[in-house]
Amino acid sequence: MCAVLMLLGQLERMNGEAMVRDVETARQITAKIFHLIQTQEKSGKEVMSKGSSGMEVILASLEVFTILRFSLSHLMLFYCYLSLGRGRRVGVFVSKGGTGILFQILITAIKELPPSEELMLQLHSLLAKVGPKDRKFGVKARLSGALNITVNLIKQNLQNTKLLLPCLQVLRVYSTNSVNAISLGKNGVVELMFKIVTPYSKKNTSLLKVALDALGALLKSKTNARRAVDGGHVPVLLALYQDWHRNDTRHRHMLIRKGLLVCLRNITNIKLGRKAFLDADGMRILYNSSTECLPVRTLDPLVNTSSLIMRKCFPKNRLPLPTIKSAFQYQLPHVPAVGPVAQLYSQPPGVDDVVDESDDNEETDADTENDTENDEDEKDQRSANDDIETDLNKLHPKKNPGRPFEELRVYERFFLELSEDFQVSNFVPMLTRFQVPTAQALSPKLVPKSGSQGDCNSTKGQHTLPSPSVPTPTPPAPLTPLELDTIHLTKDQDKKEEARIPSPDTCTTLSSLARPPSQGNWGSDCGSEGAEDEGGEGAVLEVPDTALLLPLHDPDLYVEMVKGTHSVPQYAEVAYPDYFGHVAPTFREPLQERVYGVQRSKIFQDTERLIHPNDIVDKVVYDLDIPSCPVIEDDGESLKFNSQFESGNLRKAVQIRKYEYDLVLNSDINSNHYHQWFYFEVSGMRVGTTYRFNIINSEKSNSQFNYGMQVLMYSVQEAISGRPRWVRTGTDICYYKNHFARSSIAAGGQKGKSYYTMTFSTSFSHKDDVCYFAYHYPYTYSTLKMHLSKLEALRTPQIYLRQDVLCKTLGGNGCPLLTITAMPESNSNDHICQFRNRPLIFLSARVHPGETNASWVMKGTLEFLMSTSPLAASLREAYIFKIIPMLNPDGVVNGNHRCSLSGEDLNRQWQNPNPELHPTIYHTKSLLQYLAHIQRAPLVFCDYHGHSRKKNVFMYGCSVKETVWQSNISATSSDLQEDLGYRALPKILSQIAPAFSMASCSFVVERSKESTARVVVWREIGVQCSYTMESTLCGCDQGKYKGLQIGTRELEEMGAQFCVALLRLKRLTGLRNHQHLLDLESDIIGTQAKVVSPTTYVMEEDEPPFLEPIDYSAESNDEDAEPENEHAAEVQGNPDHLDQLSDSETNHRD
Ligand SMILES: [Zn+2]
């Protein structure tokens, strides 16, 4: 059994010197070992099983033989040995330093004159085998000086295919190192490879394949790509590709054709390359060849790569806009010199901000790679951790007194409950109220459960006012809005007056509303005035009766609310969905499965614009930049668009083909970007026809539209038929980078950026319909006001509800502040004391206008808090809720996605909010500062948000410990003293709320978030349980709703469950039982071990790969434009090709 091991032992005992002395013995022993290994498979295993020290011994002897310059025979044996096994043995060989020894042998052997061809052949075969398994192969080759040896061998043996093949295989591995690629390019290797791959010939296809792979790798370097362009090789590659396309009729050489495309793909990463490609008619060549490949599924990799190249080379267009500044401007009371608005409006006249010279600015595309190896893992690690707060000082919450208490005292008026003594005469003690039988007592409102039909109906009756016989407690008087001058500001009154827009002469017309659909001419006209009169002529609009289903909705009340809403464009129309209301459908809306090939078919259609320009209509049908008449009159051949209503934001619609439209979204007011949210109206459609819509100025590099999310559509005809609802709609949805150039002005100074297209197709089922499309379920400011007004009606004598106006926004809209708790049981001292001393819960939402889901979650919270369920009653008795349901009314009203009228993200202003520019944040923070001053800081603070790139609902919190764990900073254990309480609420939520996912939560403090509500409230106010709650805009991939898109029912349920969780939190704390904390500890340890918890600083979502490569993130001037999933796609599509994949390709999957 131990023959090999014995021999190894002998060899081991001979140290290096002994071997030199007794070469012959060493040689004999080695020969025996190799003989045994060769003849008996068992022996090979023995070598490996000896803790792999056997390999070390062999390598040591090999090293000695190198010095002694006689290695050939052993090398051959060794080669055989390696051949015995694949994969693992090579891996061990590499890990023991085998690569370096092979290079040493190569350097030594080349000095022999003439070098033995046989030896070179064997060495390169071996290197070709080892190379792909050794991550540092390229560096070792360069440092040992092996690069040139291989290159020279290739040059000298172009006709000697036997030697040429292994040399090319090794060169292919060398070339994957970017520093090597540059150096090889300098030595003429790019030209050399072109010499090998041209002209078309089916001789030696394996050689050709390897040469193309090497060339492809070399061309990733920009200098090499330019070399190829300068050498006139782009037309050559295209011609060659056509030759192969024509002659490879049985598709046996797919990988060669793919190799040619990869070369083209890498060359077209530089502008010169794209130009050469277009000049050589590349678009047409790839378009035609791809069209011919389409029917053959195994050729998909060719079609996919072609479509990526075509998309990249499509000549950049400008957006069809005069300026990217929002169509509406709002005059700020003062414009801070360094703010975004100053920047926006201070551009010299004549500057074209839609397109700049950015795309022509690639002249400096010389290689910037320096002579360091970029270890991808390390790099990723570093960039992922870059954003973590590492300053321990900042990690320790330091209560910041903020403004002096004298200034804060004015906020006392918002906390009447803390001083209320209920000694007024008509105070009704709790007991009597309990005895009054009311409808509420009969059917307690339960936490809404999604999917359970009819629970909407069951709520009927609960919301009736208390019986008139019951004396109502004095409703706390609503306050007048807080005036800026009452809080000692230095700004003068005049400026403030300017800030207010003149109150629009509100003759809010429901222009299209007033006409029944049967009369046709739906949608909106340019002149909406007078529409009301027309409607008055006997036309009766059938308003769906939703009172039963939507207790908080009332169309007439909505219109009243709209009249008091101030918008910058002074909207005078109301969108039907907001008027009729939305009743969540009872059917399931699954995440849409992505159809294979959808992206490339869209890119093909886009490419056809270039190939068949005569088919393009290019007709503007809606244009907000013509304020007098944005809806362009036409012959009825086009759709009609409109979005001049609250939260609408379509700027322009261009008909591209008969049934295809390009849509441009308006920027946030006083800004030139943030395009994501959309809400617009369409009419004049044909029934049964499929229309394609493209939103062409999206900015994010990825979107849940690529992962199952659909758009929302509302049909007025459906609504009138008794189904007033938004439904998930759209097929062929995908999100990809398009050919519209994004000026550096709108891309944060970055040049050469593009916009993204969000495309969807849909058909309409009703004639004369008016349909609406939205990014997510709309929830306007007027809707909020209506809901708040209806909530008032839910008040029972037991409920303490006060609605104040915290302040006015820049646009003149009030910012509501709600206080909800239970009335004290009696006006006895004890009860009053309990009432006043309830812990506070502070909630806010909708600082980001585009995150409408946050408002639906908030609606769920508010409705639950006002409900008659025993849980809700206990909750009210346990806490005082202070709620600001909409922190950014102006943004919501004006259809912004992210900002307020100041052109800024309000959730980045919490550190230093400006009272004039960010009034809602300034005053909300002041409320919290006031509470901190009077030692009543809230127990929990939570700001509701929506997340566009992740699924499920989850929370972000702040933990010193977890932040330190994620970073590399050293901290003493005293630094890490921290109560685990911050984990309790999310943990409870993960147990009771089906949409909530603990795995997505993060408690890391990021630098980029230091001015968000969550971090500031934690750090300055000292609230340990300070959270952002993020709800998906898309759907869930875990829990009860796994595989479903999220709807308003689920969102509202989430808001209600949030309340239930607070109650459970109360009970847990009340028990003084720390068992739950221990659970939390193990929970944390669990997540730490997994290290899968995606956090905010990892910006991209972790979605599973698609069969189709989605190259949406690669910038055209980005070197690493390699679609990651491409190889996987190829393999899955063609299992037969697995073996043919080059080693370097297989290596990626290890
Ligand atoms: Zn947000």
Automatic annotation (TrEMBL):
Stored SUPFAM superfamilies: ARM repeat, Zn-dependent exopeptidases
Reaction equation(s) it catalyzes: C-terminal L-alpha-aminoacyl-L-glutamyl-L-glutamyl-[tubulin] + H2O = C-terminal L-alpha-aminoacyl-L-glutamyl-[tubulin] + L-glutamate; (L-glutamyl)(n+1)-gamma-L-glutamyl-L-glutamyl-[protein] + H2O = (L-glutamyl)(n)-gamma-L-glutamyl-L-glutamyl-[protein] + L-glutamate
Active site per UniProt: 1030
Principal cellular location given in the protein's record: cytoplasm
GO molecular function, one term: zinc ion binding
PANTHER family per UniProt: CYTOSOLIC CARBOXYPEPTIDASE, CYTOSOLIC CARBOXYPEPTIDASE 1
Biased composition (Acidic residues): 353-378
Entry's EC annotation: 3.4.17.24
Annotated segments matching region Disordered: 341-403, 445-475, 491-537, 1100-1150
Biased amino acid composition, Polar residues: 450-462, 505-522
Family the entry assigns: Belongs to the peptidase M14 family.
Pfam families listed in its UniProt record: Pepdidase_M14_N, Peptidase_M14, TPR_CCP1_N
Keywords: Carboxypeptidase, Cytoplasm, Hydrolase, Metal-binding, Metalloprotease, Mitochondrion, Nucleus, Protease, Zinc
Entry's localization field: Cytoplasm, Cytosol; Mitochondrion; Nucleus
Residues covered by the Peptidase M14 domain: 777-1066
Start-end of Basic and acidic residues biased regions: 491-500, 1136-1150
Class of the enzyme per the UniProt entry, highest EC level: hydrolase
The protein, known as: Cytosolic carboxypeptidase 1
Recorded GO CC terms: cytosol; mitochondrion; nucleus
Cofactor(s) in the UniProt record: Zn(2+)
Keyword check for Nucleus: yes
